[in-house]
Amino acid sequence: AKGAGKGQWRRYQAALHNQVLDRLELRAELDQAIVDRSFVLQYQPIVDLRTGAASGLEALVRWQHPTRGLLAPGRFIDVAEESGQIVPIGDWVIEQALADAAQWRGSGEDGPYVSINVSARQFSDPGFVDRALQRLAAAALPADRLVLEITETLLLRDDDQTRQDLARLRQAGIRVAIDDFGTGYSSLSYLRKVPADVLKIEKSFIDAVSTQPQQRALVEGILRLAHTLGLTVVAEGIEEEADRAALVAAGCRYGQGYLFCRPMNNPDVLTWLADAQV
Ligand code: C2E
Ligand code: CA
Ligand code: CA
């Protein structure tokens, strides 16, 4: 038994060692990717649940890795956050997404907004707000065509800098969304003081809306409070028609999910918009 324990320990150490090496390698490769700009954005429509018309599109980053193919953010975002590489990657995401969104605007028409994920590390980087405002001006996109998605943990942070930064963005007309609402530890009542405009309800709450009365009641409660507070609500990860119907019945106006559309490359967005908005 003692020998087996020792073997297990060695295997554990070897695995840990490999993990550390993997992360170091990933980090070095990410440095190169930042120089080469080997990232791409895919976009998933946020639709009006009653009509299917696009209201906005969420930008989702992927890494075009030289040997491993197209990597989802789950494979590299946490490493990039830990190393700070998320700052230059995020800057690129904002620049590219704004350029793409400017392209979606029909002549004279407002066009859909673009919703961009911003990690806490990126948001608290000095100069983040200045750079975002500069890029928005350079893209000549109206401020209300930009939404920044931020997690509730960051929104709840009780420091002056965060409060000031959020206020500056919102004063400029940029909307702030609470991403993954429901996954944090905060209570519903915190919504009363949260400096945000949009609330995105996390997928796990949405999955059972049509089948579990308790889940449905919870989502209805979130919707009622959010609407009272003037927040726009977006339901995430809708896969079933029954869930869409239940959400509409509960008063939820907007949503996104595979039921409507998977994330797609920018060239396909214009085609999708033309088809979906008639
Ligand atoms: P998120 O912000 O919650 O984005 C939603 C994720 O759910 C996306 O995964 C999307 O492809 C996926 N999804 C959408 N509809 C459905 C559905 O109906 N069913 C299921 N099963 N999944 C659905 P993705 O693209 O892999 O992104 C994962 C996470 O990576 C995002 O979660 C976000 O937190 C982060 N992320 C993505 N792009 C960026 C970025 O540019 N910057 C930062 N900082 N984080 C990003
Ligand atoms: Ca998001
Ligand atoms: Ca989310």
UniProtKB/TrEMBL annotation:
Q: What are the EAL domain coordinates in residue numbering?
A: 23-277
Which spans of this chain does the record mark as coiled coil? none
* UniProt name for this protein: GGDEF domain-containing protein
Q: Which organism is it from?
A: Phytohabitans houttuyneae
